[in-house]
Specification:
The complex is a heterodimer of chains A (497) and B (220). With 497 residues, chain A is of the alpha+beta class. Chain A is built from 10 helices and 13 strands. Chain B is 23% helix and 23% strand. The chains are: A alpha+beta (497), B alpha+beta (220).
C-alpha cells in the first residue's frame, strides 16, 4: 500500500512539485490592490475636497466679514451735509481707500446723479447692477451687501453700504440719505491661499495613495497565501498524497475553508484506506487459496503420473477416465501457478532481476525449450548482437506466452521478429490466423477474458496475456495487440534497452 | 459582472473629480446681505436743520438738510429774498401767500414751524440740490401755502401705538390731492412728520380741495 502511494507521489514529483502560478492580469491581487487604491482615492479625494471647501469658505468668509465690517465702520465715521458735497466726499473716500482692511480697496460713492470715487474713474465696472439695486432699494431700513465678482480671471469682492442718518439724536428713526458707498477689493491673496490649499491637497493625496499600496499588498498577501496553500494542497492530494493537510489558523472564511478542506481530505483518506484494505484482503485471499491448493495438487500430480503409466493395463473406459483426470490435474496445476504469479504482481511482490543479455539468444532459448523449432510453425527473424537489460526468466515468459497464444488461437507459421528501434527493443509475434475481432481487441489482456463466450473451455489458463502484460510493465515497456492489414494478429512488445 | 462592479466606482470617481474641479478657485456669488446700513452723521445737528424730502433720480426719497441755525444763511431759496431786505427782521414772503411773514433773523430753537418747512418743500430744490439730481414731484403751490392743523380725527391709530399717543396732523393743500403721485404724497407726509417732530412718527392726513387722503405715516 505504502509503496503504491510512494510511487504515485514519485510520479507526481516528476511532473513538477509546485507548478508556478499562471499570471492573472485581473487576478485577486490586482483586484484587491485596485479596490484598496480606489477606496483610498475616494477617501482622500472626499476628505481633501471637503477640507478644501471648508477652508476656502473660511478664508473667504473671514476676508469678507473683515472687509464688510471694516468698511461699514469707515462709512460710519462720515460727516456729510445734505446735499452731499462732491469735493468733501472725495476727500473722505480717499481717506477710506487708504484704510482698507484687510487690504487697500477702491472706494466709489453714488449720490443722486453724483458719482465720486477714490480713483481716477468715477464708476467701477466691477460693481454689478444687482448689488447697486440691492443697496438702493427703497425701504425704511436698507441693508449693506457684498458680492464676489470674477472679471477677466481676477476675483473681486464688492461691498455696498448705504448711508442712513438719524433724524433725531436720541429717538429719531434712521432714514436713508440716498448716499451709497461701494468698496472694490481684489481677492488675489485669498486666491493664492486657495490655490496653495489645492496644491497641498494634491501633494497630500498622492503620498496617501502610495501609502495605501502597502496595506493593499499586505491584505492581498494575506488572502493569497491561504489560497495558494489550498491550491498546493489540492494539487498534492490529486497526486495521491491523501495525508496532505493545511495549517488552518484564524477564524475568517479562508480558515473555515481550510478546515473544511482538511475534514474532506481526512474523510477521503479514510474511505480510500478502507477500499485499499478490502482490495488487499481479496488479493491475499486469492493468493492464499492458490498457495493452499499447491500442496494437494502436487500430491495429485504424483498420483496421476503413476496412474498414467498404468493406464495401459486397465480396461479402455477406465484408462480414458484416468487420462482425463491426469490432463485436467495438469491444467489445474498450471492455473494455480498462473494465479500465484498474478497475485504476486498484484501484491507488488514481483521483482525484476535484470541482467545484460543477448536478446536474440534469449528468444532462441525460449523457442528451443518449448520445442518450437519446426520452421513450418515458428519462423524466427532475430537481429543479432542486441544487448539488453532484461530479466531472462520474465522475458522468457513473455515470448513463450505470446508464441503459445499465437499457435493456439492463430495459425502457423508464427513469425517472431526481434530488432532495435532507437533505444527500444521491439519483439513482434505475428500469426497467419483470422486476426482478432475488433470488439475483443481492447480486452485481450484482461484476466479470464473469453473471446468466444460459447467456448467455455480453452487450453490456456486465461491468464497468459495478463501475465505477459504485467511482466512487460515490470520492464517499463508496453505491449500492444493489433491486426495486420494482410491478415493475422500481431503482438508488439517494446522494452527499453 | 466585473465590468459592472468596475463601472460604479469609476463613475463615482469621475463625478468626485468633476466636483473637485468645479469647486476649485473662487466663485462668483449672488448679492449677499451683510448687516445693516452705515449710520452717518448729517450736519448740521437735528436741532439746527430742517429736512426736506425730495426725490432722487431712482425715485427714492432724497432728504435735504437745510441749516436753520443761528449762523446759517437763509435756508430758503435766495431768489425769494428781496435785495433790500437787509436789516429788516420781518419781511413779507410772497411764496407763503398773503398774511405770512418769515422771521429770518430770529434764532430758531428746536424747530422751524411745519408750515414754513412745507412752504420750502413746495418751493422745490435749490440749484445746489438740483445739481446732485434731486427733484420734486409736487406741483407748484401757486403762491398758496399749506395750512397745518392738529387733526381731531387723527387718533385712529393711537390705540395700537405702544407709545400711547401718535401726534396727528391735517395738512390742507391748495392743490388737489387725489391725483397726486405716490412719491409726492410721500414727500409731503415725510417732510411734515419730521418737521412736526424729528422722530417723524406723526400721522398725516392730506386734505385738498377735492377731498382727503387716508392718514399716512412716513415709514415706507
Amino acid at each position: 500500500m505504502r509503496t503504491r502511494t510512494g510511487e504515485g507521489a514519485g510520479a507526481g514529483r516528476r511532473r513538477g512539485r509546485a507548478p508556478r502560478l499562471r499570471p492573472h492580469p485581473f487576478g485577486l491581487r490586482t483586484r484587491l490592490v485596485l479596490a484598496f487604491l480606489l477606496v483610498a482615492a475616494v477617501g482622500c479625494g472626499t476628505t481633501a475636497a471637503l477640507t478644501y471647501r471648508a477652508a476656502r469658505n473660511a478664508i473667504l468668509e473671514q476676508a469678507q466679514n473683515t472687509a464688510v465690517s471694516a468698511f461699514r465702520e469707515q462709512v460710519d465715521e462720515l460727516y456729510v451735509s445734505l446735499p452731499v458735497s462732491p469735493e468733501s466726499l472725495r476727500t473722505d473716500l480717499l481717506r477710506i481707500a487708504r484704510q482698507g482692511k484687510p487690504r487697500p480697496w477702491r472706494v466709489y460713492a453714488e449720490y443722486g446723479t453724483v458719482r465720486v470715487s477714490s480713483t481716477d474713474r468715477p464708476a467701477s465696472s466691477v460693481i454689478t447692477p444687482e448689488l447697486r439695486a440691492r443697496a438702493q432699494a427703497r425701504g425704511a431700513s436698507p441693508h449693506a451687501g457684498f458680492q464676489r465678482v470674477v472679471k477677466n480671471g481676477t476675483p473681486y469682492l464688492t461691498i455696498a453700504v448705504p448711508a442712513v442718518f438719524r433724524t433725531h439724536a436720541t429717538e429719531g428713526t434712521a432714514r436713508p440719505t440716498g448716499l451709497v458707498v461701494y468698496a472694490v477689493m481684489e481677492l488675489n491673496e485669498e486666491e493664492a491661499d486657495v490655490e496653495a490649499m489645492v496644491t497641498a491637497a494634491r501633494d497630500g493625496a498622492l503620498p496617501a495613495l502610495a501609502v495605501a499600496l502597502v496595506p493593499a499588498l499586505l491584505a492581498a498577501r494575506g488572502v493569497l497565501r491561504p489560497v495558494r496553500e489550498l491550491r498546493h494542497a489540492a494539487h498534492s492530494m490529486g497526486r495521491g498524497r491523501l495525508d496532505t493537510r493545511i495549517h488552518a489558523k484564524g477564524s475568517d472564511e479562508l480558515s473555515d475553508l481550510a478546515r473544511t478542506f482538511n475534514e474532506s481530505a481526512a474523510a477521503l483518506e479514510r474511505s480510500v484506506a478502507e477500499l485499499r484494505s478490502a482490495e488487499a484482503r481479496a488479493r491475499r485471499f486469492a493468493s492464499d487459496v492458490s498457495h493452499e491448493l499447491r500442496t494437494p495438487l502436487a500430491g495429485m500430480l504424483a498420483v496421476t503420473e503413476v496412474l498414467d503409466e498404468d493406464a495401459g493395463s486397465l480396461d479402455s473406459d477406465t484408462a480414458r477416465a484416468v487420462r482425463l483426470i491426469s490432463a485436467e490435474t495438469g491444467k489445474l496445476a498450471v492455473l494455480v501457478e498462473d494465479l500465484m504469479e498474478i497475485s504476486r504482481f498484484d501484491a507488488r511482490a514481483a521483482e525484476l532481476h535484470t541482467d545484460e543479455v543477448d536478446a536474440a539468444d534469449c528468444v532462441r532459448k525460449t523457442l528451443q525449450h518449448r520445442h518450437w523449432t519446426d520452421p513450418a510453425r515458428v519462423v524466427p527473424h532475430l537481429a543479432e548482437g542486441i544487448r539488453a537489460r532484461l530479466d531472462p526468466r520474465r522475458f522468457d515468459v513473455v515470448v513463450a506466452n505470446l508464441v503459445g497464444n499465437a499457435l493456439r488461437h492463430g495459425e502457423a507459421p508464427v513469425t517472431v521478429r526481434l530488432y532495435a528501434e532507437g533505444d527500444v527493443l521491439v519483439t513482434e509475434v505475428s500469426d497467419r490466423g483470422p486476426g482478432i475481432d475488433p470488439e475483443v481487441l481492447p480486452h485481450v489482456f484482461d484476466r479470464f477474458y473469453k473471446a468466444d463466450r460459447a467456448r467455455t473451455r480453452s487450453e490456456g489458463s486465461g491468464l497468459g496475456l495478463a501475465i505477459t502484460l504485467e511482466n512487460v510493465r515490470l520492464h517499463g515497456g508496453t505491449v500492444t495487440a493489433a491486426n495486420r492489414p494482410e491478415g493475422g494478429a500481431v503482438f508488439t512488445v517494446r522494452t527499453p534497452l | 459582472m466585473r465590468r459592472r462592479t468596475g463601472a460604479a466606482p469609476l463613475s463615482l470617481l469621475s463625478l468626485l473629480s468633476l466636483l473637485a474641479l468645479a469647486g476649485c478657485g473662487i466663485q462668483e456669488t449672488d448679492v449677499v446681505e451683510a448687516g445693516g446700513a452705515a449710520t452717518v452723521v448729517v450736519q448740521p445737528v437735528p436741532e439746527e436743520r430742517m429736512t426736506l424730502y425730495f426725490l432722487g433720480p431712482g425715485g427714492g426719497t432724497m432728504p435735504m438738510a437745510r441749516d436753520v441755525g443761528p449762523h446759517a444763511p437763509s435756508p430758503f431759496p435766495s431768489r425769494t429774498r428781496p435785495a433790500d431786505g437787509a436789516g429788516d427782521d420781518r419781511m413779507p414772503y410772497e411764496g407763503f401767500g398773503p398774511g405770512y411773514e418769515v422771521s429770518t433773523g430770529t434764532p430758531v430753537h428746536g424747530r422751524v414751524p411745519t408750515d414754513k418747512v412745507l412752504a420750502a418743500l413746495l418751493a422745490g430744490p435749490t440749484d445746489e440740490e438740483r445739481a446732485t439730481g434731486a427733484t420734486t414731484a409736487l406741483p407748484g403751490a401757486g403762491g398758496w401755502t399749506p395750512r397745518v392743523e392738529p387733526d381731531p380725527a387723527g387718533t385712529g391709530r393711537a390705540g395700537t401705538d405702544p407709545a400711547g399717543s401718535v401726534p396727528a396732523l391735517r395738512l390742507r393743500t391748495p392743490f388737489p390731492v387725489r391725483d397726486l403721485p405716490e412719491a409726492a404724497v410721500r414727500q409731503l407726509v415725510c417732510t411734515a412728520a419730521h418737521a412736526e417732530h424729528p422722530a417723524g412718527r406723526s400721522e398725516v392726513t392730506l386734505t385738498g380741495p377735492d377731498g382727503s387722503l387716508p392718514a399716512a405715516r412716513c415709514d415706507d
